[in-house]
Specification:
Blueprint: H1 3-21, H2 26-29, H3 72-86, H4 92-107, H5 115-122, H6 130-148, H7 175-186, H8 194-209, H9 213-217, E1 224-225, E2 230-231
Antiparallel strand pairs: 1-2
Helix pairs in contact: 1-6, 3-4, 4-6, 5-6, 7-8
């Protein structure tokens, strides 16, 4: 088996396995098991059913060919997003961007994902950092890897097709930096007097707990146990609570 196709199969099987471990059933998600051989390269695990042009559909089969109702690329995207989100990945912005990518591919009349269209879509935004182009190409690449398990025509863009400079080394705040930041926060102007205390408390919470930005902003009164000194973080990364 082509190594790229094998990697795509392993990705799909690992996601499906994790989904089942979380309590989903095959009937709930319509994930039909299939053998990882060269003969089943056009089989797709998923909730949609579509037949090939030359034979009846097998269980859970869907290939990247044009459907008379819904483009198969759209079906593949829906399956991909549903599976990733079922595992706890929210994919809010990536979901919207991938939708625009699928629309771009369909508008070009392609029935599978070619590298040139993925590259053209990734570099569409003008006046942005090269890292954003590489990030967009990475999204398209992961979708292409998923689709390649059902359609061997799919071309998976190389991960180094759009090289970019790595992020600069982060600045690590020293204790005196933190003290100065908190002092400036306490001096913020406020019509009600709450603003300086709010920001000083928020910054101090980040320093003391290492919370992500949105985790702290989404805290509610019921999440704070002042008696036992416990914070409950709900819907954190991968949809988990801590």
């Amino acid at each position: 088996m082509n190594p790229e196709f094998k990697g795509a199969h392993l990705l799909r099987y690992s996601l499906a396995t994790e989904l089942l471990r979380r309590g989903a059933s095959l009937d709930d998600w319509s994930i039909a098991p299939a053998s990882a051989t060269d003969d089943d390269a056009d089989l797709r695990q998923g909730g949609y059913r579509c037949a090939t042009a030359h034979r009846p559909a097998a269980a859970g089969e869907c290939i990247m060919r044009k459907s008379p109702v819904t483009p198969s690329s759209q079906i593949s995207l829906d399956q991909y997003l549903a599976l990733r989100r079922a595992l706890g990945v929210k994919l809010r912005l990536p979901g919207r961007l991938l939708q625009s990518f699928v629309d771009f591919v369909d508008a070009a009349g392609a029935t599978y994902i070619p590298t040139d269209l993925a590259l053209a879509w990734a570099t569409q935004p003008a006046n942005v950092q090269p890292a954003q182009w590489a990030n967009r190409l990475g999204m398209a690449r992961r979708l292409a890897q998923y689709c390649s398990a059902s359609d061997p025509r799919t071309l998976i863009p190389s991960p180094d097709l759009l090289p970019y400079l790595q992020r600069p080394e982060p600045y690590i705040y020293r204790d005196e930096d933190i003290d100065h930041l908190l002092e400036l926060a306490r001096q913020l102007p406020s019509a009600t007097g709450l603003r300086p205390h709010t920001y000083a408390t928020l910054f101090g919470l980040y320093v003391a707990t290492g919370l992500r930005i949105n985790e702290a902003l989404h805290l509610d009164c019921d999440d704070v146990d002042l008696v036992n000194g416990v914070l409950t973080i709900r819907e954190s990364k991968f949809g988990k609570s801590e």
